Amino acid sequence: MAHLSSARHLQRAKDLADARYADALTVDDMAEAAGVSRAHFSREFRREFGDSPHAYLLTRRLERAAALLRTTDLSVAEVCMSVGWQSVGSFTTSFTRMFGKPPTAYRASFPPASLMAMIPDCVVRAYGRPKHRTFGEDRARASD
Question: Phi and psi for 21 in degrees, rounded to 5?
Fold first, then answer.
């Protein structure tokens, strides 16, 4: 039963990392969420989840960055900052280590985000129509 309650506390810290990966979250913050000391937390987290808390947090950040690179047109620097990295250089190095290619090459291997935007044809046609019509219907409405 002690293992179950310990795992629940660890899960709380893992959930914190999942929810606030972009914040300046530290292992101390995660240990506090679990309600245990930093050293004990790091040991138990690694035993339970297979990664150190720091490595887990970096993995979450890199996974989110990869999703942003695939689905948005944000610059690499904007993606870097939005997932909690402070340096584009260290972000690029870590990203390359995890995904096997730098962020720009990773993005280039996917279709542009603009092609993924699903806009119904009726909306495209409506916005493609001229704003000022020269047909008699506009004059007929004005006189009504």
Answer: -60, -30
